[in-house]
């Protein structure tokens, strides 16, 4: 202590950071890590005890996305490892977290957060050790029965530290100058995630969820660190430079991203909507179809397209702007509850189902675009709670009935 006295450390354990902590049994991951980010929770969820990678080029929003996940994830403990990134980013996190409240407990977010700062101006050896230190601390809390989320920003800098150390040891390099054992080290790191029954006489269940940012040079996903990471993760949130240039954040590309946990988590989401999986798949298929139509529209122009295809472009724009885009610094939009996400997703798909018969019967898409209620649909994400969705649904129904009557369409 500062006055020269001594205090014994409680709950202290000595453990080599490169060796995984033991446990009794591994359990299946059946509960999602709720992050409050719609594109993550609704389209590409990660389970508690799962793994996720966030690859993206410069300026695509990796750090801000990880900050959002660290702020709003419903884990008990958050461990944020700043590995080789800029020091001002770590300072930004440490400055903002004390002012934020946990939506679950009402306590300050800083009380459940732990930061490991190994920024770019620190030694290479420290950078290499920081990832192992973070995962060992995560396992320590997991063994106490907590759900832990570990954010590593960025694993590319850790791999570069491995490359530098390997070069100084004069080891034979593999692809990209990285050591031949890079795949083994990446696998060792991600395999320390999981939901487990911990050791001890009391039955405790804890989990470690790992989310690692990857910084491929020039946004090239075929480079060694990214391609090897994709082998070992269950969820990919692929950040897209083009979406970032369009100011679409989080810039997660829905055509490149995937989640292997969707079917495992459908029982959780069925509490909010029994047909959640069907609406999720419908929304994704509409977005995929719209991307194909956009290629044709660039050549011949949107006005030359059939009205049915123009409607798909219109509804995909609403899904993108009204659901996928999320403002990290907006008081309401920064965090979206699971119930609201499920209700919004159902409403947006049903909105398309209401409009499709009108367009097939000859109602121009331009007339639909001019409806005043369209603006309200786009602003649902900024409204608190789910009552606004029911109100806008009633307004949409009234507008659709008015259009059907005007164009003498039976619906």
Task: Give a structural overview.
This protein has 411 residues and is an alpha/beta fold. The protein folds into 2 domains: 23-260, P-loop containing nucleotide triphosphate hydrolases (Rossmann fold, 3-Layer(aba) Sandwich), CATH 3.40.50.300; 275-407, Bovine Mitochondrial F1-ATPase, ATP Synthase Beta Chain, Chain D, domain3, CATH 1.10.1140.10. The chain contains 15 helices and 9 strands. Strands 1, 2, 3, 4, 5, 6, 7, 8 and 9 form a 9-stranded mixed β-sheet that branches. The chain is globular. The N and C termini lie far apart (77 Å).
Question: In CATH, what is the homologous superfamily of the largest domain?
Answer: P-loop containing nucleotide triphosphate hydrolases
How many structurally independent domains?
Answer: 2
Please identify the top-level CATH class of the largest domain.
Alpha Beta
Low-pLDDT runs of 5+ residues are none
Radius of gyration of CA atoms, rounded to a whole number: 24 Å
Annotated CATH topology of the largest domain: Rossmann fold
Helix content: 40-55%
* Shape verdict: globular
């Amino acid at each position: 202590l500062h006055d020269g006295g001594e205090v014994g450390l409680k709950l202290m354990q000595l453990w080599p950071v490169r060796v995984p902590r033991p446990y009794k049994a591994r359990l299946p991951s059946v509960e999602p890590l709720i992050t409050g980010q719609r594109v993550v929770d609704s389209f590409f969820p990660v389970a508690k005890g799962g793994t996720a990678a966030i690859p993206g080029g410069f300026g695509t929003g990796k750090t801000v996305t990880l900050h959002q996940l660290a702020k709003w994830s419903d884990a008990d403990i958050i461990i944020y490892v700043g590995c080789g990134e800029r020091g001002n980013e770590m300072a930004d996190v440490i400055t903002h977290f004390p002012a934020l409240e946990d939506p679950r407990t009402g306590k300050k977010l800083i009380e459940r957060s732990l930061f490991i700062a190994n920024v770019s101006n620190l030694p290479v050896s420290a950078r290499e050790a920081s990832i192992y230190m973070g995962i060992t601390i995560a396992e320590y809390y997991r063994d106490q029965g907590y759900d832990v989320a570990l954010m590593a920003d960025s694993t590319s800098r850790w791999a570069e530290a491995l490359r530098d150390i390997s070069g100084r040891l004069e080891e034979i390099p593999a692809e990209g100058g990285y050591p031949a054992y890079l795949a083994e080290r990446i696998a060792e790191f991600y395999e320390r995630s999981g939901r487990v029954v911990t050791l001890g006489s009391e039955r405790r269940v804890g989990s470690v969820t790992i989310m690692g940012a990857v910084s491929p040079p020039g946004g090239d996903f075929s480079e060694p660190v990214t391609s090897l990471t994709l082998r070992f993760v269950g969820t990919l949130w692929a950040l897209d430079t083009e979406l970032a240039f369009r100011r679409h954040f989080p810039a997660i590309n829905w055509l490149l991203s995937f989640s292997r946990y969707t079917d495992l988590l459908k029982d959780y989401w069925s509490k909010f909507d029994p047909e959640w999986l069907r609406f999720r798949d419908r929304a994704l298929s509409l977005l995929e179809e719209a991307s194909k139509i956009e290629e044709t529209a660039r050549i011949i122009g949107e006005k030359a397209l059939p009205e049915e295809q123009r409607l798909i472009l219109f509804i995909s724009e609403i899904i993108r702007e009204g659901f996928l885009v999320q403002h990290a610094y907006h008081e309401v939009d920064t965090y979206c509850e699971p119930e609201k996400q499920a209700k919004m997703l159902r409403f947006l798909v049903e909105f398309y189902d209401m409009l499709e018969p009108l367009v097939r019967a000859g109602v121009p898409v331009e007339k639909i675009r001019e409806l005043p209620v369209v603006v309200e649909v786009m602003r649902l994400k900024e409204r608190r709670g789910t009552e606004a969705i029911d109100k806008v649904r009633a307004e949409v129904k009234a507008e659709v009935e008015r259009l059907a009557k005007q164009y003498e369409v039976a619906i």
